[in-house]
Automatic annotation (TrEMBL):
Belongs to the SINA (Seven in absentia) family. It catalyses: S-ubiquitinyl-[E2 ubiquitin-conjugating enzyme]-L-cysteine + [acceptor protein]-L-lysine = [E2 ubiquitin-conjugating enzyme]-L-cysteine + N(6)-ubiquitinyl-[acceptor protein]-L-lysine. GO terms for biological process: proteasome-mediated ubiquitin-dependent protein catabolic process. The lineage of its organism: Eukaryota, Sar, Alveolata, Ciliophora, Postciliodesmatophora. It is an enzyme of class 2 (transferase). It comes from Blepharisma stoltei. This is RING-type E3 ubiquitin transferase.
């Protein structure tokens, strides 16, 4: 077989190992309809929720998913690079285990936007922003889509005054600050009974301790909690419960002041 024909045959095989919907290479698990048309797990889950019909032959998928084990065994024989190879990942992979690796690849810089979206004057629950991209573009996204500009700060801590009496219909407020050259998203929310202060250090994997001093009226107290990076499996937001509505909305002159530092 000539070099050209070998190349065409190889390209034809790789096309058969590509999901016809998302046009990405298959990875375990793969699913098929009763006629043998295969799609990847992600596309199968989406179709199962919306319209469980094969996009190629229009036959309805059976109630019990059908795995394509023959295709999955083929995936183990084809080498593949991580999609974060350009960022420095040198892991040796095959098509079978590529997706599992990419879910926890240390070179993955993609993060979800942590900001809630609220619809003013409507009794609808808050919804997370749908943006997802590199953490290097997160601050630009904050500025352009959420009108959230970083408050410059050269100190090792930042003092935030959240204002006087919080209205009974108050739900959510956010501030972007800089502490020790790190961007920190600070939120104040009243979604349930108590007010909660959320602190997120906008790094990928770094662990740090968040120190919060809270002054509310004549009350003053301090709390320390660990905070993990945005790609950590442990959790990335420190939540400090400040008190109930009755405690914080006490009188017109009441101000809520928080002082935050990270170690």
């Amino acid at each position: 077989m000539s070099k050209r024909k070998r190349s065409e045959a190889s390209r034809d095989i790789m096309n058969k190992l590509t999901c016809p919907i998302c046009v990405d290479y298959f990875s375990k698990p793969t699913y098929q309809c009763s006629k043998g048309h295969s799609i990847c797990a992600g596309c199968y889950q989406n179709l199962s929720r919306l319209n469980p019909i094969c996009p190629l032959c229009r036959i309805r998928y059976p109630p019990t998913p059908i795995r394509n084990f023959l295709l999955e065994s083929m995936l183990e024989t084809y080498p593949s690079s991580c999609k974060y190879a350009k960022d420095g990942c040198k892991e040796t992979l095959n098509l079978s285990n590529r997706h599992d690796h990419e879910k926890s690849c240390p070179f993955d810089k993609e993060v979800n936007c942590p900001v809630f979206n609220f619809i003013a004057n409507e009794n609808t629950p808050p919804d997370m922003c749908k943006w997802r991209n590199s953490i290097d573009k997160l601050i630009e996204h904050f500025q352009s889509d959420h009108n959230l500009n970083p408050e410059e700060n050269s100190q090792s801590s930042v003092t935030l005054n959240w204002g006087k009496t919080l209205n009974s219909d108050f739900m959510y407020r956010k501030k972007l600050v800089v502490i020790k050259e790190k961007y920190v998203l600070v939120t104040l929310s009243h979604l349930f009974e108590a007010y909660e202060l959320g602190v997120m250090v906008l790094t990928l994997n770094k662990r740090c301790d968040v120190n919060v001093k809270i002054k509310s009226g004549e009350m003053f107290y301090k709390m320390v909690k660990p905070c993990f990076g945005m790609k950590s499996v442990v959790g990335d937001v420190c939540i400090f419960t400040l008190g109930t509505v009755e405690l914080l909305v006490l009188e017109d002159k009441l101000e809520l002041i928080t002082k935050i530092s990270i170690d």
